[in-house]
Amino acid sequence: MRTNWESQQEPELSADIQALFRAYRETLPDFDGGPEFMPKLWHKIESQRKVTYSFWRLGSGFVTASVALSLAFAFVLWTPLQSQGAANLNSDRTYVEVLADDTADDISDSATI
After folding, report:
1. What is the pLDDT of residues 68-102, one digit of tens each?
2. Per-residue CA distances from 52 to 38, 61, 62, 108 (Å)
3. Distance between CA 81 and CA 40 in Å, rounded?
4. What's the Cα-to-Cα distance from 55 to each of 20, 45, 48, 59, rounded to whole Å?
């Protein structure tokens, strides 16, 4: 006996395989959508949306906080330090001159030790 899903070209399955498929079909209940099927389905979908939305809001908060922190760090690094004195803020000096002065300070500190 062939069922609808079997084609004419397939060989007949052994009795063991047919018994296995029959036992599998018997263990699964027939799906019959009752009047509560759609409300339950939508309840499951909405509960998943709430969890996803919570994670999205949490991630959005972290992104906002990191942008604010990055802007604060950029502002701190952009503003000149006032405690270093006027000698270090002289814009007429070259990078090599600043390095030479710094090296001279290091040499004089190590010579006194």
Report:
1. 999 999 998 887 665 555 555 567 788 888 888 88
2. 21, 14, 15, 63
3. 63
4. 44, 16, 11, 6
For 1-113, where are the alpha helices, taking DSSP H only?
15-27, 37-78, 95-111
- Model confidence over 16-51: pLDDT tens digits? 999 998 899 888 877 777 888 889 889 988 888 777
> What pTM, to 2 d.p., does this model score?
0.34
Q: What is the rounded CA–CA span in Å between residue 46 and residue 5? A: 36
Structural tokens at position 64? 């906002």
Tokens for 85?
């004195």
C-alpha 62, offset from chain centre: 11
Q: Which residue has the tokens 């079997």?
A: 6
- Position 20, amino acid: L
- Polymer length of the chain: 113
Q: What is the DSSP track for 18-32? A: HHHHHHHHHHSPPP-
Q: Which residues contact 80 (CB under 8 A, 6 or more apart)?
A: 89
Phi, psi of 56 (to 5 degrees): -65, -45
